[in-house]
Design a protein that fits this description.
This protein has 2 helices and 33 strands. It is mostly beta strands. The longest helix has 11 residues. The protein is globular.
């Protein structure tokens, strides 16, 4: 499938609310099939599982995969789990990296990152009150503001690379992002993503000639070698190559740089994470790498693990590469250990012996409430005044963390009510006449679990003719 990012159309602050308009192409992430033919013009296809494909309201664009973005600069996918992320450039204050799921509302222009966006007049400011209080908004996992002294001049986020390779040990299982103008590169833990706000970002510096330098410093040095005036900005881009290689590109010195790891001695301890309920029974799931460096040794050491029976049954290590893999059937934090302890030994072939301890933590994965796979559709007989119960919306919490709360919105929401605890949908209007009003009412229904994570589905209520 082909994913396409479309910005909000400019004019500052999206004054026409196009990013939230499901009938507009602006402020969206689109998903199409280049080889298909079922679009309106027959030149491409619309996947059947797109969230708005087949919507009862014909004004909704079936190509839309997610909405509420300002300027989706770059996409990236976690190669291990398939999760999608977008780098979305902010208006005046907040840059963000956000997860993208089918039908997600990323908030713009009601929200800029985790903060309410003040659209009145020409202020283009944010409010510090009520952060992340939106019921059906997908908020950033990473965000930073324009006031940081590290980011001189213009500020704009770019990315996103989730590094699952082992050629750069320092970046294993880290998410890479960057600031486009300054060329600053940052990283966060890919298996323990923050929740925006005031979390920490770690800075990446590059070893060049034994000195730590920023990308912009490398560019300026190259400019001097080229006989050019040193640039004041980098215009950073990330590139991916075969075998997990990561490249840094810029517009200022004509150089493409390949990131490589710095050799390091073996550590005494390692900490890895395995997400709960991930199965390695049919295909091992790599979770990290142990590395022993034996300077001067001609033969690489062989790796082996030891530990309790429960741990040995669940993990295996590549004897040559030192890659630790999960081979169990899945871990449930409610019914099993929260961590496993292993010992790793490397030696043989003339290399000195090396021992390390490895702790593998089972990470809780908070999943949103799950709706049934079938389309939510109900019927309402014409001319029947409310209150009239017409159906029940049912969503379940995969973590069984507690009850699910329901809410509805949309143009037709004044005609309907939903019981927040049971999901019972009730018609409260004065009666629908087929000759006087629409035959279909479209509602947005949101289910929020006890942790505040929410999921949304579209619901259609069809007015049916009564046999009188």
């Amino acid at each position: 499938m082909l994913y396409v990012g479309s910005a909000d159309g400019g004019s500052g602050g999206d004054p026409f609310d196009l990013a939230q308009d499901l009938g507009s192409i602006f402020g969206k992430i689109l998903r199409i099939d280049p080889l298909g033919t079922n679009s309106v013009n027959g030149q491409y296809g619309i996947p059947a599982d797109n969230p708005f494909a087949g919507a009862a309201d014909p004004a909704m664009l079936a190509e839309t995969f997610a909405y509420g973005v300002r300027n989706p600069q770059r996409f990236g996918w976690d190669p291990r789990y398939g999760d999608m992320f977008v780098a979305d450039i902010g208006q005046n204050l907040v840059e963000e990296i956000s997860p993208v799921t089918a039908g997600a509302n990323l908030g713009w222009n009601d929200w800029e990152g985790s903060f309410r966006y003040n659209r009145g007049g020409f202020s283009r400011s944010i409010s510090l009150e009520g952060q992340r209080e939106g019921f059906d908004v997908t908020y950033p996992v990473v965000e930073y503001d324009h006031g940081d002294a590290l980011l001189a001049g213009g500020v704009a986020v770019t990315g996103v690379v989730v590094y699952r390779g082992d050629a750069i040990p320092q970046l294993e299982n880290r998410m890479l992002l960057g600031d486009f103008p300054s060329g600053e590169v940052f990283h966060v833990a890919a298996d323990d993503l923050p929740s925006g706000g005031q979390g920490s970002l770690r800075r990446v510096l590059f070893n060049h000639g034994g000195e730590r330098k920023t990308l912009l410093q490398l560019i300026r040095e190259k400019n001097l070698q080229q006989g050019r005036r040193p640039s004041t900005r980098a215009d950073l881009r990330f590139g991916l190559g075969p075998n997990g290689r990561v490249f840094l590109l810029n517009k200022r010195d004509g150089t493409i740089r390949l990131l490589v790891g710095t050799p390091a001695a073996g550590r005494d301890t390692y900490e890895f994470i395995i997400r709960e309920n991930v199965s390695g029974a049919f295909r091992p799931v790599p979770i990290g790498r142990v590395r022993a460096v034996a300077p001067g040794a001609e033969v690489r050491p062989a790796y082996a693990i030891s530990g309790s029976g429960a741990a040995l049954e669940r993990f295996a290590i590549d004897p040559v590469e030192g890659v630790l893999a999960y081979i169990g059937a899945g871990e449930d934090r409610e019914g099993g250990p929260r961590q496993y302890d292993l010992a790793v030994t490397a030696g043989g072939g003339g290399s000195p012996a090396y021992d390390a301890t490895v702790t593998v933590e089972v990470a809780d994965v908070n999943e949103p409430a799950a709706f049934p796979s079938e389309r939510l559709a109900f019927e309402l007989p014409e001319d029947r005044p409310g209150p009239l119960a017409i159906g029940i919306v049912a969503a379940s919490d995969p973590e069984r963390a507690g009850p699910v709360a329901y809410a509805i919105s949309g143009p037709a929401s004044e005609r309907f009510e939903i019981d927040s605890a049971t999901g019972r949908l009730t018609y409260v209007g004065n009666g629908e006449g087929l000759g006087e009003g629409p035959r279909n009412h479209v509602l947005s229904v949101v289910a929020r679990d006890a942790t505040g994570l929410s999921a949304r589905r579209w619901l259609t209520v069809t007015v049916t003719r009564r046999n009188e």
